[in-house]
Amino acid sequence: MDVTLEIRYFAAAQAAAGTASERFDCSSTDRISDLLGALENAHPGLGAVLPRCSVLLDAVAVAVTTDRQVGSASTVDVLPPFAGG
Fold it and tell me: Which domain of life does the protein's organism represent (predicted)?
């Protein structure tokens, strides 16, 4: 089954992707790591940023290298580390 995700980029990830958000089609069986690889292919500048980013799948943190499937998620947030607190 195909899903359309809302990908939201923040701070350095936004600058690397050249956009604050986009709609991205993938399969519900794609793993998070597959999705991030596809995003990097679409936006090569993300390659330098993604390894340091946190990823939220429908507001729940997931490991960047996880085998977790996208499933029925609707939103992916890509968050680089932020200074301060």
Answer: Bacteria
